[in-house]
Amino acid sequence: MAREEFDHFVVVDFEATCDKDARIYPQEIIEFPAVLVDAATGCLLSAFRTDVRPRHHPRLTAFCAGLTGIRQDQVDGGVDLREALAMHDAWLAAAGAAADAGRLAVVTWGDWDCATMLESECRFKGLAKPPYFDQWLNLRVPFEAAFGAGRRRSLPEAVCEAGLQWHGRPHCGLDDARNTARLLAELMRRGVHISITGSLAPPPTTPSQPQPQAVTPSRLCTCDGGVGSTACCCYGGVATRGGVMMTPGTMQGRCFYGCGNWTPAFRPMCPFFPAGLHPVILVKIS
């Protein structure tokens, strides 16, 4: 049953601000739970949980409160995300799991917790997060390797299919994390291969970049031709990239151009833009 690659697994399952049939932006974590698992035995060693106070949408929607079971007074009395990350690190250290972060693997059910939620919130709030959150084990992957990938299961369905009984309330972050940890232990018991499935690529390193040159207005275009037309340049002189708006709303399906050095994960990558600043996208919506 031993997993020589790691000493510990830490299972996380964040709950965040949400609403029914609507998208909240920016979405923020409101429950930060974690369960520590011995990678050699599958034993659940310790648990951590803290309420997190949202900054941009401090009032929970009725849908969010009903889904997660989290009350308004809980988030009002919660800590901010920076403190939650520090508390989580201190908990790991006290449990003896932080001496060598390379021997610690984060486990999730799906990629959303690390690839989207924590990453995006830390970036828009300018927070540094521990590097062990930059790679993770999406337990859905080894589960489907063992039980088949014919249909997509929810976490409660996967727990049941593995022959386990669900404990607690779905969408309670700590209960979800505990059940994910129990499912992890069951897969280990069955001899299923457990390894990292996802990671965030580090931003490209550019040790010596030339100073940005002034760009004259003649180098800019109005991008009237849609996504298939000749690319124009942003203020940094970088060729723009075309795309189609996928987010539901009035702009869905419309064409746009944006800075070629901007990505949703890492934002601007050219020296024209100050660190952490979104590029001004010279866009004319088609």
Helical residue percent band: 25-40%
Which structural class do the helices and strands define? alpha+beta
Order of helices and strands: EEEEHHHEHEHHHEEEEE
Total strands: the figure is 11
Oligomer: single chain
The Rg value, from CA coordinates, equals: 22 Å
Profile the largest sheet: 7 strands, mixed
Give the overall shape. globular
> Which percent range describes the beta-strand content?
15-25%
Average pLDDT score: 81
Number of helices: 7
The residue ranges in which pLDDT falls below 50 over 5 or more consecutive positions are: 214-238, 263-286
Short description:
With 286 residues, the chain is of the alpha+beta class.
Describe the overall structure:
The protein is α+β, with helices and mostly antiparallel strands. 25% of the residues lie in helices and 17% in strands. The protein contains seven helices and eleven strands. Strands 1, 2, 3, 4, 5, 6 and 7 form a seven-stranded mixed beta sheet that branches. It has a two-stranded antiparallel sheet with strand order 8-9. Strands 10-11 form a two-stranded antiparallel sheet. Helix 4 (112-125) links the parallel strand 5 (104-108) and strand 6 (135-138). Helix 6 runs parallel beside helix 7 (173-189). The protein starts with 7 loop residues before the first strand and ends in an 18-residue tail after the last strand. Mean pLDDT is 81; it is low at 214-238 and 263-286.
